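Sharing a chain and its predicted structure for anyone who wants a worked example. Both blocks are below, sequence first, tokens second.
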Amino acid sequence: MLQTNRIESLRKEMFEVAKECQGNLLHPRVLKASEQLDREIATQAKQQLRLRRQSIHKTPP
């Protein structure tokens, strides 16, 4: 749940930066915020995949 909050926080931050930059999605500040969000999403996706793989390979007691 905390991870989802991190993504949501970064998403809101990106929208605020875009608003401050008059909607210019190519503004360096907007691109930086977008990249931060992308990295967080990718990190969490990798973690979820790793956890799923671990649970598949566990043998029942």
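Comments welcome. The chain has two helices and no strands.
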